[in-house]
């Protein structure tokens, strides 16, 4: 769902994703812009994470992202000091900062890691108007660390940033952590920044027990370009996943704003990649079945048997300011649920799995039959004032038009939804 007044991404953003947290930064690895941050379950846990050497930011030389890791090659203004930031994401973030003295003389380097956390809801970061009354972020300092905490009623999040390294003695300064390194000619030192995240008073686990698409066949070929493409594609699929429930990994809809459970996107991704691995499809079906609507709720466009469109877990959805807890405004996820269930059976002949999901399948069929009009077409009509007017894969407010260019009103039947149904 696209909020009104969407701010969009910062210029030339660099996104790193994992089954837990994901990060949007600039080419130097710094987090400082409006749309940048370290995010976890639709909340920005770091709104600032900037590396400075002798008071100045570093110039990016190159950046490389692979799976849930990234490397940033940097140079200090004036030369002499080079830096490499190696970042890894999971249920938090770890970053190795390697500083090297390229000069022929010893130097004293003052390093500062500016950090802050605002715990903004992802929709607020994207420009959504926020009616929820925000609480203050508390800050505590300790040995080599700073701790940020936020709670609003039952909504609780926290972030801890900790520095470690041989011979490093960080001290807290008003906007982050600082330390001094004495580097001889050609000497290199490494400092590690560890960022842990908490939800509801519990620390997020670093990594799920398994990786999505872990059973994908290994491609063996002398065609190097094809091999690189295959391996990178499988790696990206594994990274672009998240844990919707404990141990239940599903494909996310996209990075960075759509690392969440989207019915249509997850179903189509699982369908199109089922030849690689059938387990992601099973996970998607189980996850969506667990959130299948059981009653009518106009605020969330929910109806019995309907499969969700989007599930969010930030502050706005927690307090009912947006309907994504979950939101059901999609006409095609319900028939696609049935399509994917049949496709899993075709690939696996697993009758037990189909029986496991028999009740959700019958519920989806019931919704489909109820929303088929007298002409045999599946249609929809939005009811939620906070939801989507258009509920197909094209869901912007002005994407469905009559022949004369006027925006379509009333009950709408989309051509692709009929294909899914029949």
Give a topology summary.
Layout: E1 14-17, E2 22-25, E3 37-40, E4 43-46, E5 48-53, E6 56-57, E7 59-66, E8 69-75, E9 81-89, E10 92-101, E11 107-116, H1 122-125, E12 138-142, E13 145-152, E14 155-164, E15 171-173, E16 176-183, E17 188-199, E18 202-203, H2 224-239, E19 241-245, E20 248-251, E21 261-262, H3 263-272, H4 279-290, E22 310-311, H5 315-318, H6 333-348, H7 351-356, H8 358-370, H9 415-421
Antiparallel strand pairs: 1-2, 2-3, 3-4, 5-6, 5-11, 7-8, 8-9, 9-10, 10-17, 11-16, 12-13, 13-14, 14-17, 15-16, 17-18, 19-20, 21-22
Helix pairs in contact: 3-4, 3-6, 4-6, 6-8
Uncertain residue segments: none
Number of strands: 22
Approximate helicity band: 10-25%
Integer average pLDDT:
90
* Percent of residues in β-strands: 25-35%
SS class? alpha+beta
Count of DSSP-assigned helices = 9
The coarse silhouette is: elongated
Q: Distance between termini?
A: 27 Å
- What kind of sheet is the major sheet? 9 strands, antiparallel
Radius of gyration: 24 Å
What does this structure look like?
The structure is a single chain. The protein contains nine helices and 22 strands. By secondary structure, it is an alpha+beta fold. Strands 7, 8, 9, 10, 12, 13, 14, 17 and 18 form a nine-stranded antiparallel beta sheet that branches. The chain has a five-stranded antiparallel beta sheet with strand order 6-5-11-16-15, with no helix packed on it. Helix 3 packs antiparallel against helix 4, helix 4 packs antiparallel against helix 6 and helix 6 packs antiparallel against helix 8.
